């Protein structure tokens, strides 16, 4: 399987749509833990990305450039802590994709592992802190292991997304240790982390892109 630059651009279009559809849900989760604006923040970031997709990136064929511009655009649009996390992830991933107009299975796996490592390096959170990392760390570890084993990106990615989903759901049973929600202490129990949730939506959307491409 391979993804063209056009299909990669289309993936970001789909993320924009998914985040817009889930904006209210993400805000509802965040009202129980923080300012209640996570959905709005993510929407602002991705709508800004969407504008770039229709202008500067419209005919771009370098997947590395696409990833880098997406990251910087998101950062410039979003002032909250999530901006630098996603920006670092996409810019780290861009190095894997530099000058590539078609993405192989290996490129895809390496991109997402680099993306997650970038997020982790920037945010310094650990699994169990009730953050985006609770979704992304198990996702990346499963993706790396399963792809090395099978060389089947769709199968490996599907298992990885399931691992990410379990990680996301585990945040309901965690006490928040980082950020504004950490002030709540045990009152943060029982609520799924909004950042972990939006991260899950982003990787799940990529899985759906792979599924569509696999049957073409």
UniProtKB/TrEMBL annotation:
Pfam families: Dak2 (PF02734). It catalyses: dihydroxyacetone + phosphoenolpyruvate = dihydroxyacetone phosphate + pyruvate. It comes from the Bacteria. Keywords: Glycerol metabolism, Kinase, Transferase. GO terms for molecular function: glycerone kinase activity; phosphoenolpyruvate-glycerone phosphotransferase activity. GO terms for biological process: glycerol catabolic process. Pathway: Polyol metabolism; glycerol degradation. GO terms for cellular component: cytosol. Residues 6-208 form the DhaL domain. It is an enzyme of class 2 (transferase). Its EC number is 2.7.1.121. The keyword Mitochondrion does not apply. Homodimer. The dihydroxyacetone kinase complex is composed of a homodimer of DhaM, a homodimer of DhaK and the subunit DhaL. ADP-binding subunit of the dihydroxyacetone kinase, which is responsible for the phosphoenolpyruvate (PEP)-dependent phosphorylation of dihydroxyacetone. DhaL-ADP is converted to DhaL-ATP via a phosphoryl group transfer from DhaM and transmits it to dihydroxyacetone binds to DhaK. This is phosphoenolpyruvate--glycerone phosphotransferase. The lineage of its organism: Bacteria, Bacillati, Bacillota, Bacilli, Bacillales.
């Amino acid at each position: 399987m391979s993804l063209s630059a056009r299909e990669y651009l289309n993936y970001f279009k789909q993320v924009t749509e998914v985040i817009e559809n889930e904006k209210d849900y993400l805000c509802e989760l965040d009202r129980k833990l923080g300012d209640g604006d996570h959905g709005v923040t993510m929407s602002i970031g991705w709508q800004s990305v969407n504008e770039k997709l229709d202008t500067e990136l419209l005919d771009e064929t370098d997947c590395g450039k696409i990833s880098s511009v997406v990251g910087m655009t998101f950062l410039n649009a979003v002032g909250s802590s999530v901006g630098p996390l996603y920006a670092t992830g996409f810019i780290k991933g861009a190095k894997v994709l530099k000058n590539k107009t078609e993405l192989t299975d290996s490129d895809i796996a390496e991109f997402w592992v680099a993306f997650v490592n970038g997020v982790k390096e920037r945010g310094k959170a650990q699994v169990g802190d009730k953050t985006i990392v609770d979704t992304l760390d198990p996702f990346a570890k499963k993706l790396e292991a399963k792809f090395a084993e099978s060389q089947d990106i769709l199968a490996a990615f599907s298992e990885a997304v399931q691992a990410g989903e379990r990680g996301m759901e585990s945040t309901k049973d965690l006490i928040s240790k980082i950020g504004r929600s950490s002030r709540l202490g045990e009152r943060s129990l029982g609520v799924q982390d909004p950042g972990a949730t939006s991260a899950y939506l982003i990787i799940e959307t990529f899985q759906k892109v792979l599924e569509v491409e696999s049957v073409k």
